[in-house]
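Checklist before submission:
- one chain only
- standard amino acids only
- sequence pasted in full

Submission:
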Amino acid sequence: MPATERTTPTMGRAIRRGLAGRCPRCGEGNLFKGFLEQVETCSVCGEQLGQVNVGLLLPFVVITIVVHVIIFVMLEMELSGRSSPLVYLVVLVPLSVIVPLLLIRPAKGGLIGFMWKWKISDELER
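Returned file contents:
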């Protein structure tokens, strides 16, 4: 039996594996089969990953990070004196689209790793 199947990874390792888009248990299988669609089971270790659903926690985390980035950029622009409306449009609109697209997949993977480690889900028990 491989060492990855005998030991349970630490919280930090499970989150890092999720951030990389890998199975939080073995670190080798893919966590996603599309851009955001997670796999039901790991193709390497067979871990049931479909039971972990991040649900509404994902948009909360992504929006919180994006708002902080945009507020920092806006504050920096105001303090540096580059605060014309055109500069705001040219900088903030693309930033508002690009940053969430870059964050959403690693954030979902990290949340899956965290929730997998604690054996929790955002779904109600039935």
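Reviewer check: Residues 11 and 117 are 6 Å apart (CA to CA).
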